[in-house]
Input
Amino acid sequence: MKDFWKELKQRWRNAMPQFFKRMMWICGLVSGTALAANEAMTVAGIEPHQWWIDIRPYLIAVPAGAMFACKFTQNYDRDGNPVSKPLPEATKPDSVNMSDVETVSATQHPDTTNVGRPAPADIDPYNED
Output
């Protein structure tokens, strides 16, 4: 069982073929659009047609499952070995030197919530500009 999880972890991190990257994008677009349309109808209080109720689970779940399956495909070199993509420099464990990191406490950090906005006392409700 440990080898199974190790294999899934390796496949998740390895490089994907370009075709499956495009398929993931298309499936995400279809699934996301169907989910957004369904949520918009729910929030607006619209009662959907029966055909939408029938196909809604398939429009959301099937592309999501296809995205999941696409993610586990991987490229192989000429010898049949999986091609792993190198980790970006920032995610490698040895690339961050913690002595270079500055810490800022909440008392030292300026309040930036109203930057560029007038303070509430300065607002004139009768001013036209």
About this structure: The radius of gyration is 25 Å. Residues 123 and 129 are 11 Å apart (CA to CA). The mean pLDDT is 76.
